[in-house]
Structures are given as structure tokens and as C-alpha cells.
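Regression check, biotin case 351:
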Amino acid sequence: MKRAKQAARPEARGRPAAHAARPLVRRVFAELADGGFHSGEALARSLGVSRSAVWKAVRALKALGAPLEAVRNRGYCLPGATPPLEAELIRKALPRAQGDRVSRIDVEWTLDSTNSRLLARANPPPGTSEVLLAEVQTSGRGRRGRQWLAPPGGSICLSFSWTFREVPRELGALGLVIGVCALRALRAHGVPRLELKWPNDLLMDGRKLGGVLIELRAESTGPACVVIGIGLNVALGASVLGAIAATGIAAADLASALHRPPDRNEIVAAVVGECLEGLAAFEREGLKPFIEHWRAADALAGRPVAVSGAQGTAQGLARGIDLHGALLLETREGVQRFISGDVSVRPAVTR
Ligand code: BTN
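Current build output:
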């Protein structure tokens, strides 16, 4: 029987023209993504541009925070670099059932924020998702108005949208669900010693490996579209590590835990696949199927913490989450419940 001809996926259409039109800085980045040394002359030859154009692109790459090295007589090198993000490779690596739910995947070189861009688009039909990634975000956003820092090629800046048929009752706990899904995907890729820190942080060896930012567009009734942003540190390099440390956050990256450079396209596909499966389950059953997994990965359980939320700041011992995903804090006045907030771990009191 003759098979019907499949329509080309949006990301596969017009590919050669799109590649040629890419900015030079993106093409230089792609050449350096093998982690080896490339002389300015060799880069100019293979890209069909002048050496001074290469030099300007290299400077621009460095200004964006890429951990670029320049060594006399050897050329330029991006240590710890991984191959560029490519929509088609992500599509190929997506499990079939989840791939059918993804109507569009775009990888941009630079934009302000992948979350902001998806929020500006129309809602995807319920049960489907649009995925957007960028190598560089000029205004990457973290929770509570913080900036999200990520060097080109050294991180995953991922957003995807999802429309619920109606606003889920436990929407406030969606960040916990996404945390569990991202953790499962990373574990399946051999990432060790992962934990979750309430509400939305992914930790490795107790340091921040990634974060989740969920934004909602909804009326009081009817469909609700969420844009889920995930930032994952892949290979940060000293300057971005330093900049994050200056904000008081100890960061970790995948490159330091894995013995080979992680394949970002495969990791993106695994994370998106797990999350879409998780979103469908959350829509049917709420937080329930995820609670035990979340509790098993809880980085704070039993630890002395300070929680700052809308009700002010409180100190006590973290006692896990309740059935709705709220953080339970054992204080001198009794157990307090937090539905949002920021947590910092306090040094244990020694007698
Ligand atoms: C946090 O831990 O504060 C959440 C960080 C979320 C960062 C991601 S990167 C992709 C997406 N686009 C953004 O502007 N932010 C999220």
C-alpha cells in the first residue's frame, strides 16, 4: 500500500537558505562547537568571509559570555562546547507519542526571553505544544524578577507552551510537576546526585543546576495557556559562574558531572518529552501521581530554613510538601504552610 506523503515539519522547511542567512557570530559558534582549536584563517576560509569579519564575530561571542580562548599560533577554542541546538535533531530525538503533540520547534540564535516570545504568541490548541529555544537571551528572566544568566552554547534556555482546557485546580503546583519531569529526564541521561528544592529549583550536589519559570495567560474561566521556561546550566565557564556567584547563588553545570560533553539536543528532547507526558497526567489527575517522586528528591526535608513569602519571613525546619504542593515549615508557633516564596538554608545550630 502506498503511504501518504507526510507534510514537512515547519522546522525542516527552507533549511539550506535559513542556514546561509544565519548571523556570522552564530556560524563561528557552530564551527567552534567541536571544542577544538580553529585558526582565524581556517574559520575565514570555511565560512567564506574575511579574517577581520571572523575576528569581530569572535569578539561578539566573547562579549556574550562565551568562555572563548584565543591562543597564539593555535587560534580560537570554546572549551566544554557542545554542538549547536538544532530543531530537527530535537524533533528526531523526541519520543513518537510526545513528538505528535509538538506542533512547532524553533531555535533562535538570540532574542530577549524565550518565555516572553511564547507569551506573545496565540495559545496552541489544547493538547499541543510549541517549543522555543535560544542560544542567547538578552533579557533572560528568572523567578521573582531576577535575571537568568547563561552563556551561549553553555546552557539550555527552553520554553514551551501548553493550553489546558480549563484552569487546573492545582495550577500553583505545576512547577513541582515540571521539576519531577526534568529530574527524570536528566537522570535517564546519567546525571547524578539530583535533588529538587521547593518551589522550582533543580539542584546537583546541593548547587543550582536549573530553574523553572511558569507564566500563565488565562481568563477566570475557559482555557488557560501556560508558558513553561526551563533554564539548565550545561557548561557555564568561569566568568558566568562568577557572575552567578555574585548574586549569592552557588551554581552547578552538567559538564562538571558527566564524563562526556552532554548532547543538548538529546537532553532538550528528553526534558520536553517527559514534561509533555507529565502535563497530560497533571491535567487528568493533578499533583497526586507526582507527590511521592517529589518527596523522594526533596533537598530541604528536615533542614533548618528561612522562607520569605507574601506573609513575611519565617524560620524553622522544612517538613516537605502537603497534598497541594505547599511547603510545610515547623516553627516555634506550629506548622506554617507556604504556597509561594523563596527558601534559603540556614546553618544548623550546634550546641
Ligand atoms: C529561576 O530559577 O529563577 C527560573 C529560571 C528560568 C530561566 C528560563 S531560561 C528559558 C526561559 N526564558 C526565560 O526568560 N526564563 C526561562
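Comparison notes: The domain at 87-296 is CATH 3.30.930.10 (BirA Bifunctional Protein; domain 2). The chain has twelve helices and 14 strands. No diff flagged against the previous build.
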